[in-house]
Amino acid sequence: MTEPLSYAVEGHVFRAASVAGFRPRKSTLNVKEQIAAALPDISRMVLAFGQVDLELGYYYRIAVKGEAVTPETYPDWLISIYRDFLRGLTSKDCQLALKGVNLTTLAPVEFSARYVAKIVNEGGKLPRLTAVEKVRSYILPEAEQNRMHLAFNDRLRDLASEIGARYFDLNDALAEPAGERKLADRFKPGTFDHHLADTVEVRQLHYRAIGKAFDI
Fold first, then answer.
1. How far, in Å, CA of 216 to CA of 86, rounded?
2. SS3 of residue 110 by DSSP
3. Rounded CA gap, 16 and 76, in Å?
4. How far apart are CA 104 and CA 176, in angstroms?
5. Distance CA 58, CA 18 (A)
6. For residues 208 and 204, what is the distance between their CA atoms, to the nearest angstrom?
7. DSSP H or E stretch at residue 179
8. DSSP reduced 3-state for 72
9. DSSP string over 1-56
10. Which residues lie below 8 Å from residue 21, measured CB to CB, with a gap of 6+?
11. CB-CB neighbours of 210 under 10 Å
């Protein structure tokens, strides 16, 4: 039986929020403003951003906006934006932790193409099959997608150290125990989604990792 936690975790979801949205302009989601406003009233905060950028924003920039981004350059671009945002946060009393992104659920390529096309073609500007075909040629194989995620995490870990924040990710627990570094099947969703399966085990992994990050 799992022992109860000695602390409480209060989550706040910003749906579709991205690191790219931290750039110095007005965001329709007001994520930056909400984070800054919460700081004076709490003692610990975990920020978990980047998954949306790496699994959806990356393909939107290539397939829709025609930008010349690559798996090698994209993590650095995101971290530079994250760094500027975090340097603008001021709080002496709130401990900050940065959570790294998870290994991807986007596999195999056909599933990924259909899911990514659905998101980046929001509003139905293209017929569904046309959107899937447009996106498919850009979809990274699972191993390459995960390499981009892990590269982002490496840079995020360095950023946390640079600004005096804590860092953690769940990938040691989420990965297959042997072979290629990829998400274990039991953590994949059974629905058309790119989030981890919402299970008791997954929630416990998050809660305990947060406690360990803050030494509580």
1. 24
2. helix
3. 21
4. 12
5. 11
6. 6
7. none
8. coil
9. -PPPPSS-------TT--GGGGSSS--TT-HHHHHHHHGGG-SEEEE---HHIIII
10. 27, 29, 31, 32
11. 20
Q: Is the pTM of this model over 0.90?
A: yes
pLDDT digits (tens, 9 = 90+) for 157-216: 999 999 999 999 999 999 998 878 999 999 999 888 889 999 999 999 999 999 999 999
Residues 6+ apart with CB under 8 A from 37: none
The token pair that represents 179 in the structure block:
């072979």
Q: Tokens for 51?
A: 């998954």
Cα(122)–Cα(81) distance, rounded to whole angstroms? 25
Q: 59 vs 35, 68, 159, CA distance in Å?
A: 27, 11, 25
Phi and psi dihedrals of 72, rounded to 5? -80, -35
Please give the Cα distance from 34 to 66 (Å, whole number).
31
